[in-house]
FadR family transcriptional regulator (Neobacillus rhizophilus), 460 residues
Amino acid sequence: MAEKEKISQTISRELLNMIEVGKFPPGSKLPTEMELAAHFGVSRIPIREALSVLRAAGVISSRQGGGSYVEERAATFLLHQIRIENDDKEVIKHLFEMRKILEPEAAYLAALRRTPEQLEQMEQALKWLEREFTDEEKMGTEADIEFHRSIILATQNPIMIHMIESLSALYERALKITLEPNLVLKQRRKAALKEHQDILLAIKMEEPELAKIQSVIHLKNAEKKLSLLF
Amino acid sequence: MAEKEKISQTISRELLNMIEVGKFPPGSKLPTEMELAAHFGVSRIPIREALSVLRAAGVISSRQGGGSYVEERAATFLLHQIRIENDDKEVIKHLFEMRKILEPEAAYLAALRRTPEQLEQMEQALKWLEREFTDEEKMGTEADIEFHRSIILATQNPIMIHMIESLSALYERALKITLEPNLVLKQRRKAALKEHQDILLAIKMEEPELAKIQSVIHLKNAEKKLSLLF
DNA sequence: TAATTTTATTTGTAATACAAAATTAATTTT
DNA sequence: AAAATTAATTTTGTATTACAAATAAAATTA
């Protein structure tokens, strides 16, 4: 199950790395597709696929007849390409830092704007989480993510939604890693569930400030739990 | 200067729209590349380019021999593809909402962690902004962005950095639109400059809370200015 | 019925060719 | 000689055809 990688993926990763390392500094011209193809020993096809990924990520831009150039403000990395390893505590810390910034505000906005349908969606997610928590085996990470996701959706801010969505894959993996070895969790399950219920209640009552506070509390407790790991 | 669009771009936009509209719901299988090619009346090449963009954005996933499927949690849109039109006030509002959430926290973190080099970078950007402001003609949008960007970089959080970078193109355009017709700005220039200096000073003194407050003040004033437009 | 093999489908890559845009070199004009 | 125009070259964008490799569907066999 070695998940064989596509050639174009390998190449886009390689090229991105070269750009990050400074082999192709911002503003510089990349080699032509033919040259890259020769260099990597492949045809133009996977080269073009790789370049199109970098283009979509805003790392390079190409002009027909001109060539491909590294963008002046090349995004530092493709979020989809971040791989969290078990020992990769830095990424998890940074991710949690962003959660502490985004989620309380999202809860605030959700309390302001949520539609009845969105409230229903949150309640469904919470019920799912409750079911998962009664089962000793399950961790409920998916339900957890779905709950937080439903709150984000209720903010009605497409940019906020996009940011969280682009983080979700990363978030999911980070959550699994942090929850997996955590035996303390079982004792904290009821407390965690209560925290989720409190957030939802505040959103239901349309109390933005309260929702924000409940979210802060939840994240603070989650962080305590997290700090035991590191 | 009509900026002719590539076929693959047109198609990726079309496909994305179809997905958003529900023509291809999450989890469903897309038509084969051959079918798509026939449908759009092009060869497989631009189809593959379009699909690779959607793949990079996490909207779809493909398996050799299997086909392409819409991801269960397809990102709602590609940030790079958002076009802000002059009458597109909604996007600008949402963008500003995100700035209010992210930037004060970024200033906080920057005050905590900035290296001397990063402080230097911020000061350079501020000087640039001062020069631009003395010139009646120039608006200083680029310098403005560079200043805020230098603060973000000093947070040392790669996820934060990535988020802002991915927003920067959008931000730049929004800023130009909001500043362009604003004649009041000239009177507010000194005030705005002072606000920037205050933020930098707090970061220089390594006073996180103060930096956050100064950032909030700055954004509050900017929002007042903005509210005149809408 | 269940497991295995075969067949067909579909994406991934290759090679070649040409169109279209941009860059560079050459030419002409002033 | 300098500037403008034109021509030639380079380079990306798209098309066509072909085949490899992985998956999914169908047929076969136990």
Summary: The longest helix of chain A spans residues 89-113. The interface with chain B takes residues 8, 48-49, 52-53, 55-58, 73, 75-80, 91, 94-95, 97-98, 101-102, 105, 109, 149, 157-163, 165-170 of chain A (CB under 8 Å).
